Amino acid sequence: MNADKKIIKTDFLIIGSGIAGLSYALKIATHFKDASVTIITKSEKSESNTKYAQGGIATVWDNTVDSFERHIKDTLIAGDGLCDEDVVKMVVENAPARLQELIDWGVAFDKTNIGNYSLGREGGHSHDRILHYKDITGAAIENALIEQVEKTKNIHFLSHHFAIDLITEHQVKKKQTKRLEKFTCYGAYVLDEQKEIVKTITAKVTMLATGGIGQVYITTTNPTVATGDGIAMAYRAMAEVSDVEFIQFHPTALYNPGEYPAFLISEAVRGEGAILRDYYGNRFMKNYDEREELASRDIVARAIDHELKKSGMPHLYLDCTHLDYDSFKKHFPNITEKCLSLGIDIRKDYIPVCTAQHYICGGVNVNKKAKTTIKNLYACGEVTRTGLHGANRLASNSLLEGIVYAHNAFENIAIRFDKIKAPKNIPNWNDSGVVKNMEKVLITHDRNEVKTIMSNYVGIVRSNERLLRAERKLKILYEDNKRLYDHSELSVDLCELRNLITTAFLITRFSKVRKENRGGFYNVDLD
Predict the structure, then answer these.
(1) 85 closest CA partner among 502, 368, 500, 344
(2) Among 73, 262, 433, 441, which residue's Cβ finds the most Cβ atoms within 10 Å?
(3) Tens of pLDDT, residues 438-454
(4) The pTM is what?
(5) CATH class of the domain comprising 440-489+491-526
(6) Alpha carbon of residue 120 to chain centroid
(7) Which residue of the set 121, 129, 277, 297 is catalytic?
(8) Sign of CA dihedral 133, 139, 143, 144
(9) Is 518 noted as a catalytic residue in this protein?
(10) Which CATH architecture does the domain made up of 252-356 adopt?
(11) For 127, which DSSP code?
């Protein structure tokens, strides 16, 4: 493979470099030692939602005090009746083996003084079952996986390469396509940001592992790369998408106006006993759920949203003053340091917090083997709708989902890879008729408008009127952006805007269709 060429042929193409994409790459490259594996990421190698995960990974590690049945039950309760029970059972029962692989790859989860793994608890869990590394579990996993990838000779890593579109019959046969047709994925058109050229990367098998959609909203814990690229690309390629109306808002992001992404105060802090207080210092969670601070995220987030609207204040508080400081500092060193940098001493000061978009529970439809509805296109991680999360994800089940489905994809491909033919006669990207005088201010303005529309109309609490307004405004943005996209030289900003508008429109459209409140979806007109 020559990364300098405009046409790149590879056996496996992986779009995204989080836990899902990297663990899949390692398994594929190790099994198919003579195959070429290409990972592309639009930023640095390690920049992904995985890197920002604080809490950890849920698994039944000690079955003397916990059980698969309890983890399954907790997941089903959080999913509010919309989980696929067979999928939940499969993921939970596979979790210990997948966690052991991470440990074998070098992830050093925290241990107790006697050498056992230190298991935490988060909202919605009935037992301590969260394996973690301090309060930077995601970064520890990401670093360990990248170290393994860099040792694997047949994995080629292309950073600063942005996937524009998947290649299917639409490009190959140059014909209009319909959603009910059967399609095959032959790779992707990719913008090399540094050389400013579009490359055609053909592959026998393509994996979408592009992460989330947080940048659709003003306040999010997601990094700036989370612009819904995978969902938008798959939708344009005619893949099935579902459940994107279920957006999870994290209850406790640090209130620090002007900081992007929002700094997350891990749910594990509440698992350690931290208390939510309103702006005036009063406890309130007992008015919303008997589990109080340990209720599932959708309940806690809506409770906070209600309290903020009631008080008219921009934030409320998380009280850690009663917790053992030495233990807190050991478990949450980054949170402690971050608070101190803002003059907040958790021994005597409450932490100001607000809600922030955190996770999307739906996405590209996949089966248990991680296969999408497009042939030779797989997907895993947050970009997917697997049936595990239902209407609301149970805390610390996301990283778990990524590694389980990456493994399932690998197992399926190991059986069928020899029968897959290499793509032929794939046309190059056509950039004729574009101009270079596109004004960047148009992109910046429209990107901010998408965020404003979604935060105001398609947030934690929605209504029929808000959704209608959002849809109308997004249609106008779509038409304006399409004209800009069709006649302008490509840039990452322009492509991201295209994906943000598409993803925002899908969330809004699916929200309009849903006629009952479940989990992370709440419409006041459906009460």
Answers:
(1) 368
(2) 262
(3) 678 889 999 999 999 99
(4) 0.93
(5) mainly alpha
(6) 22
(7) 297
(8) positive
(9) no
(10) Alpha-Beta Complex (3.90)
(11) S
